[in-house]
Amino acid sequence: MPPCRPCVPRASQSLPAPLRNAPWLRRLGLSVLFTAALSVLAASTDGVVTHPVPNPLLRADGSPIATAAEWSGQQRDALLSRFEREIYGRTPTTAVPMTADVREDVVLEGGALRRKQVRLTFRSEEGIATAELLILAPGRSTGPVPIFLGLNSGGNWTISQDPGIAAPAGHKRGRHERRWPVDFIVQQGYAVATLCCDDFFPDKNIESYPQSMQRLFPADQRGPGADQWGAIATWAWGLSRALDYLASDPLLDSARVAVIGHSRLGKAALWAGARDARFALVIANNSGCGGAALSKRIAGETVRDINSRFPHWFCGNFRAYNDREAKLPVDQHQLIALIAPRAIAVGSASDDAWADPLGERMALELAQPVFALFGIPSLDAPHPGDRQRLHYHLRPGEHDILLPDWQAYVRFADRVYGRIRD
Ligand code: GTR
């Protein structure tokens, strides 16, 4: 795992007080934000330069998109290819056959918990590779269970102390337990499904491509390269393959899968959710630069920062925008818009200046006009009813995913799936 986050000077650790809840920003009206006026506004409040961002409802030739059908057709495909070409790299369409071997399926804790461990094996003419999927579900469910699917960054055994989770000898269990409040999630009637990101692409450096699952693809479909897929796109591919398995398991409800990720894995969850419309809900927690935060707002981690420290995450073309964010033909609000009309939750933390909480919130707001085409109410609609598909929260504290974040995501999922109503 590459080094942890650089220190951000104390003064910029949290948002300036007037921006924390930013009700005035919400009231501004989004059209303002698409003009250079935003730069002036942002600079005058928190001293941050924000370059104008593309209007998601304009085609590349400047013509307007007026209907959901116009958006879902060519515009969506064109945008997706632009993100592939410039930022995440092209994911091959070649299918790699996958088999699933259920190595364990047990009901524990007097029927409260069901644990399944499934080995996914991928075979192509180029080679073979495996990924270990862990599923923790309510033990007594009567029908198919909705799921939170997310990658973990240390191995499945890091999410819990449970000695039954397969682990290599000598590995410390439960290192990331605070990030995976499994008991709470399962008690709410959801399953947790997780795999380690390293099974798909070891999160080390630019030398890691040959050890990644890209090795299963023909040589001309592997990175690194100008527009070849990087680690984030490979992780997103892995999430879609996990969903292929979940869709085949009668215990689980594949129509209600939330793809979730924290930080770098939040970037992967967003890219997976943008590409694969089978995900009903996409959750990006503290995902920052290359995730939910606007790149054109020069705050926290910049394009140069991320490309320099993690050159294996994105495609080569993204480096052309180091210190040239104004030239980027897309920005992250358009990535969020690609999820419409499905549901999206963005979670920030108040002291996570490196991930630019305000930039994350602004991207979600700037995506709203696309959701509105589908009749989806805005973030601050007083009575969103059963059409609520947008969620944002700013948790006090540092960069992390903790119980209060999960509580917010479970509650939002409950609303999206019609399990609770106002
Ligand atoms: C940081 C990186 C961020 C974020 C984070 C993480 O060092 O700069 O983009 O992804 O790591 O994954 O915890």
Describe the structure.
This protein has 422 residues and is of the alpha/beta class. It has a single domain, classed as Alpha/Beta hydrolase fold, catalytic domain (Rossmann fold, 3-Layer(aba) Sandwich). Helices cover 29% and strands 18% of the residues. It contains twelve helices and nine strands. The chain has a nine-stranded mixed sheet, with helices on both faces. The longest helix has 21 residues, at 68-88. It starts with 16 loop residues before the first helix and ends in a 6-residue tail after the last helix. The protein binds beta-D-galactopyranuronic acid. Beta-D-galactopyranuronic acid binds next to loops.
Per the principal axes of the C-alpha atoms, what is the gross shape?
globular
Structural class: alpha/beta
Compute the number of strand runs.
9
Helix-strand string: HHHHHEEEEHEHEHEHHEHEH
- CATH-level-4 superfamily name: Alpha/Beta hydrolase fold, catalytic domain
Low-confidence stretches: 8-44
Quote the average pLDDT. Answer: 91
Number of helices: 12
β-sheet strand percentage:
15-25%
* CATH topology title: Rossmann fold
Bound molecules: beta-D-galactopyranuronic acid
Radius of gyration: 21 Å
Give the CATH class: Alpha Beta
Could you give the distance between the termini? 43 Å
Summed up, the domain count is: 1
Indicate the CATH architecture: 3-Layer(aba) Sandwich
Strand arrangement, major sheet: 1-2-3-5-4-6-7-8-9
Characterize the largest beta sheet: strand count, sense, and whether it forms a barrel. Answer: 9 strands, mixed
Fraction of helical residues? 25-40%
